[in-house]
Amino acid sequence: MSLDFDKESVALKDDNDEEPMDSNFNHGDFQLVGHGEKTNGECGNFSGYYGCPRGELHDIITLQGINYKGKAYVRKVFHSCDKPSCPICFRWGWAARESKKIEIRLKEAARHFGDAEHIVASVPVRDYGCSYEDMRKKAVKALSDRGVVGGVLIFHGFRYNMRHYWYWSPHFHCLGFIIGGYARCRGCRSQLCSKCDGFEGRTRRMFLKDGFIVKVLGERKTVGGTAWYQLNHSSLKVGVRRFHIATWFGNCSYRKLKVTAEMRKQVCPICQHDLVKLRYFGSKEISLDKDAPEFSRDFVTDIEEDGRPVWVVFVGRPSGGYGE
Fold first, then answer.
1. What pLDDT is recorded for position 12?
2. What share of the chain is helix, strand, coil (3-state, %, to 5)?
3. Residue spans per domain, the chain
4. 208 Rama sector, left if φ>0, alpha if ψ -120 to 50, beta otherwise
5. For residue 142, what are the CA distances in angstroms to 154, 208, 231?
6. What is the pLDDT of residue 15?
7. So what's the pLDDT on residue 7?
8. Cβ neighbourhood burial of 144 (10 Å; 0-12, 13-18, 19+)
9. Residue 167: phi, psi to the nearest 5?
10. What is the DSSP string of 132-151?
């Protein structure tokens, strides 16, 4: 049997065998996130501004080589129900909060296990009819057998094909830690992977035993950004009130890894101070249309207009919303 994963991936499933989702983006008990019912009339409504008007503290050169002296950092806040099924709140509410939690936990784990890698474990076609619990159990074993000692799993029940529709193809995206890391394999140009004791050699040999195609994807830019993007395309089990799309395993499980880092919900990316609720008294038009091309949830702007301050601290805070 060939050990070329690209050829194996094509051979795993013929296009004629694909099972398209229905018009509600469902397959059996599973649904693509963001395709349920809107929770209530408040979902997505503008709530107010959070920001940092400490312009004197922004007199520093950022990593992008920009000095924001005299500028205010501002974040628009919108009401969110934080449900993965809600078509309004799933992306900037639920996924944003969940990815922040993942980022904090993986940052702590990285102190012990090195850099996290983005890995995909594809369930063999023969197991497509298994329960979610069985698929997850087999995926964890497949990852462990290949030297992945722990991480977070994000369940994807569907893939999008070249004919432009979603179809049932369960797999798990993993942000996890590999024994010995992956740098050796990433820079390797050898064609003899099957004889190597690195990750690529292990995963090819294990494929012949368990049928799982387990791949390490390209280097990620940020842990939080990768988690957020994968959560946006994940799947939930309909009718299960507390179904967890992102779950932890191995050395990163809640039983084995204790994280004491505080989750700071609102922090200025320039000076790292906590954000405060702001009121705007200026004359500029600020876009609140999230579908507009020019929309930006976070922005930097002048603290003063025509010599008078226009961003003023307001006592109180908006109710739960995107980005809090």
1. 40
2. 25, 25, 45
3. 29-37+84-250, 49-80+264-313
4. alpha
5. 15, 12, 22
6. 43
7. 37
8. middle
9. -140, 160
10. HHHHHHHHHHHHHHTTEEEE
Do 212 and 122 contact (CB within 8 A), yes or no?
Answer: yes
pLDDT on residue 21: 61
Residue 18: predicted pLDDT: 66
Q: Where are the beta strands (DSSP E) in 64-185?
A: 71-78, 117-122, 148-160, 166-178
The residues with which 214 forms a beta bridge, in sequence order, are: 121
Residues near 288 by Cβ (< 8 Å), separated by ≥ 6? 46, 76, 295
CA-wise closest residue to 34 among 102, 83, 101: 83
Smallest Cα–Cα separation from 202: which of 146, 150, 148, 149?
146
Exposed/middle/buried for 259, CB within 10 Å: 0-12, 13-18, 19+? middle
**Which token pair is 51?**
């920001």
Cα–Cα distance measured from residue 155 to residue 186, given in angstroms and rounded to the nearest whole number: 25
Q: Which residue has the tokens 């922005």?
A: 299
- Whole-number Å distance between alpha carbons of 293 and 275: 26
Evaluate whether 29 touches 170 at the Cβ level (below 8 Å): no
Mean pLDDT by 10 residues, the chain (324 residues): 43 49 78 94 92 91 84 94 94 92 94 95 96 97 97 95 84 96 84 81 94 92 94 94 94 92 74 92 89 86 92 68 48
